Amino acid sequence: MKTDSFKLRHLGPSDKEVNDMLQTIKADTIDQLIYETVPDDILLEKPLKLAPALTEQEYAAHMQRMSSKNSVFKTYIGIGYHEACLPAVIQRNILENPGWYTAYTPYQAEIAQGRLEALLNYQTMICDLTGMELANASLLDESTAAAEAMTMLFAVRSRTQKKQNTTKFFVSDEILPQTLSLLKTRAIPLNIELVVDDHRKFNFSDEFYGAILQYPGVSGQVYDYAEFVKKAHESEIKVAVAADILSLVTLKSPGSFDADVVVGTTQRFGIPLGYGGPHAAYFATREEYKRNIPGRIIGVTQDLNGNRALRMALQTREQHIKRDKATSNICTAQVLLAVMAGMYGVYHGPKGLQYIANKVHNAATIVSNTLEKLGFKQCNTLYFDTIKIQADANQIKEIAEAKEVNFYYPSDETVSISLNEATSVTDINTIIAIFAKAANKEAVEIKEIPSSANIESTIQRDTDFLTNEVFNTYHSETELMRYIKKLERKDLSLNHSMIPLGSCTMKLNAASEMLPLSDPQWGNIHPLVPTVQAKGYQEILKKLEDQLTEITGFAATSLQPNSGAQGEFAGLMVIRAYHESRNDHHRNICLIPSSAHGTNPASAVMAGMKVVVTKATEEGNIDVDDLREKALHYKDNLSALMVTYPSTHGVYESAIKEITKIIHENGGQVYMDGANMNAQVGLTNPGAIGADVCHLNLHKTFAIPHGGGGPGVGPICVAKQLAPFLPGNPLIPTGGNKAITAISAAPWGSALACLISYGYITMLGTKGIKQATEYAILNANYIKERLAGHYDTLYSGERGRAAHEMIIDCRPFKTNGIEVTDIAKRLMDYGFHAPTVSFPVAGTMMIEPTESESKAELDRFCDAMISIREEITETNAENLNNVLKNAPHTLAMLTTDHWEFPYTREQAAYPLSYIAENKFWPTVRRVNDAYGDRNLICTCAPIEAYMEEA
Ligand SMILES: *Cc1c(COP(=O)(O)O)cnc(C)c1O
User: Fold this and answer.
1) Whole-structure pTM value
2) By the 8 A CB rule, do 711 and 753 touch?
3) Which fold has domain 557-749?
4) Which residue ranges make up each domain of the chain?
5) pLDDT tens digits, residue range 721-751?
6) Of 507, 697, 847, which is best to mutate to test ligand 1, by the most ligand atoms within 8 angstroms of its C-beta?
7) DSSP state of 453
8) CA of residue 565 to ligand 1 center, whole Å
9) If you measure from the C-alpha of residue 753 to the centroid of ligand 1, how many angstroms do you get, rounded to a whole number?
10) Span 311-336, pLDDT tens digits
């Protein structure tokens, strides 16, 4: 046995444990188990063609070599991306800390108070800087956030009589090019008509429902938009502003000139460029839109004792409830990046941010002044960080690249320079030297960045921001380190115990996969540099695309979508483009089984399709007769079927090939939701079942950590006929030869995070990656067997096996007054995060252990579940003062002088012996969701506010 093989570190069970588990589940071998689980007509005949697995050491050396193929130039391209300084204390204690990066989305609020607080800080920071009332806890990137603003305002337009049937949306020609591309993508299916023009010429016609402006403009020019917004509002036109977050430190906030929505990216708050992402976008708006805002909002509420507690507010699972009535499909967002950007605000505070913003502006000013002295004309009359120089772009480009400097060249006669936090005096002298050489003049060396006169007073910020205590306390490294630790301790992550989330695949995120993310040779590449400077990235991204294409059995892959749901939307838009290319413009019906994830119908509607729901059988499978009937009925207009495989019920439906055939026969394409790909890799694939396109959640199956709710990467893989339509980018060629417009801002989406999945596949190789799937199935069936007799499993395959996950029924306990939530909360006392609750069936739990968990951990989890089952036996509906209803139990409860519960302290907090040596303490009692929704507070209020309330 090669003991240095990565697979041994990734797979949980040892050989001996595998044998023990096989015995328990009554299978002789893994092969037999797979035979009993996966229908044989879809099994792959040949092993995947992947390069031989690398060891962790070999992989590190390989990545070192590849990173040296990237040329890290000093880059002043801007256009929404700027070099930033990631404080080392944040890098080490958050980005490189599994306590933060392996956490799940904070659905279980009682064991997520740390990241919830970090996100509340983020929302507060965004509200302060934008001057808005309400902000969410991140979106995917600035351009998608802008598109969300356009669609949200479209959805709410009918609130004013006058606007009910309006479809026009004005876009300033100062918008970022990638944002314009995304607005187009999202406008087409909704029949929104974009009108792009100079905002100074806009006539505020009644035909418009909304408008979007860029602040400062893409040219760098800062405009005073107060008059525009005022006039727009007179015509009942709502205005969104895409704003540079750092500029808002010195510029008037969009809220102060009455903007309705403000969006942007927080990348420049300490987040590496990473060749395009991941970065957190923000979305801020008025309180009146609190029920329409896309994504997740963190809000303040109370726990059972009336203590302050946080949780996700309102439409937390918006698409899951609204489904085809939803206007946004955002599920996974950019939580880890929002946490980091928020911490950047905490660390620097208002004074620190002011210093940074001034420094950037002063750098722009000195460069502008010096270049003007050299005889160049600077076109921006008012600017924050970006100046626009009239010069021979080709000549400057040549000199600049020789000095390893990138500018942006909007035309042959203009050079745009965006200064940033990392720009030093030396850097400024290099810029000056480049222009001096072009002008054939002597460069005057500057010695320091002088503080210049500030931005014109009419648009200068005159309101305070970040006045809350949290932004004025943790400015030393010791203080911030301890603050981060204090929050981390409140959260249960994979570094404490397994997180058995059905459909969400919380597997190991190996350190060796994560390490390259800290390397500036990967982190410090701007997404719009000439591709020759990113050879390392280009090679790795191509290899990853090829690996994913091979794994899915398809023809091509796009890494662009930033989440699974964005992948769904991208895939459906590709299908749409395919139909249109064949003059099938009318094909707009999308069949979706009733058990589908809420993002499926939401994405279909966003892609302009009509959702027709198909039935499930008693056994939880797709009702093939019903499907055939509907496919036939709609055959003239059928666009697609969206199907999850194995199904969301945890079963490999044996009729899948028949299902895909029915769709094809009736002119449709098959979209496979790849969230359950962990049950397929190496055994079968979407190509083999007859699908045409799928998304993969690299943050589920392919080891990107969940980050507490993001980042995600949701590539789409497609069959040959769809490959030409893979999404493009307006500035950097990518995608198919008939590419649809952009799905994400950056050409390769969140390229930096893609390295993790590349590491995962490269270190596991053909055998390891198949074994991962087999072990995932083994672990799930082991849990199924151990829980048998205690809990009913809802669905199984034809031969009685579960796939990689299973659903257990908790509805029968209602007669004892016990709800599925009580079991979820009680698991916290046992040191576990609950499985997925009430999806896809209300009142149930979906358990997915993954291949990374050892038998010992599975046993602890099963022991906990069985022990809880016994506790349920002792409860009754008449008296709900019991150990489940009162769960979770906090340390404060346990250590009060008066113990008033009808069970012992030991029963409350140490019900099983394994707990004592590794106790996890929830820091709040059960949170009150209804209270928080009635009294919505989404920013950190000053501490006095809580004292008054109490
Ligand atoms: C997670 C998931 C999605 C959505 O993926 P995101 O990355 O969160 O957008 C879609 N479908 C299923 C079945 C999922 O489990």
Assistant:
1) 0.97
2) yes
3) Aspartate Aminotransferase; domain 2 (3.40.640)
4) 350-459, 557-749, 770-918
5) 999 999 999 999 999 999 999 999 999 999 9
6) 697
7) P
8) 6
9) 17
10) 998 755 555 667 778 888 999 999 99
